[in-house]
Amino acid sequence: MGVRILYDAEQELATFYCSTAGTVIGPLVRPVGDLDARDSAEAFLQWVQKAFPFASDIRALTPEFLAAVYEKWHQAEVVMPHEPGNTIAREGYDRCDCGCKYWEQDKCIDCGFHLLSVELRAEREAQEVA
């Protein structure tokens, strides 16, 4: 039981499915470069788990947050396929609060602060209040 990838070869789309709750979670995934939609979904899932280690299970993230993050990931993969890089931070221009100007996958190389974690934290706080 857990997260599965649903794949439609005819439409060339994929999405994530929670087999425990029986619900679809996350965005519709499109092909990227030489990867079909199923492989793109797997690549995105792996990227999410690396980018957000504190959210090891994507079911903990809201569909809206996953959709926003997916669009940033998809755009980065189309522009620079299969190369690590930043989707938000511009190295040398965007400084972290700690003063560092170097980023790896939108994560500060000095203190480990992740730019997208601010969005995730705000989203979780809003859910706790509701």
Query: DSSP strand (E) fraction?
Result: 15-25%
- Rg from Cα: 16 Å
What's the end-to-end separation, in Å? 29 Å
| Total DSSP helices | 3
Number of domains: 2
Task: Describe, in plain words, how this protein is organized in 3D.
This protein has two domains: 1-83, no CATH class; 84-130, no CATH class. Helix content is 36%, strand content 18%. The protein has helices at residues 37-51, 63-79, 115-129; strands spanning 3-8, 13-18, 23-29, 103-104, 107-108. The chain is globular, with a radius of gyration of 16 Å.
Name its key features:
130 residues, 2 domains, two-stranded antiparallel sheet, 3 helices, 36% helix
Topology (SSEs and partners):
Layout (H helix, E strand, L loop, with lengths): L2 E6 L4 E6 L4 E7 L7 H15 L11 H17 L23 E2 L2 E2 L6 H15 L1
Antiparallel strand pairs: 1-2, 2-3, 4-5
Entry summary:
By secondary structure, the chain is an alpha+beta fold. It folds into two domains: 1-83, no CATH class; 84-130, no CATH class.
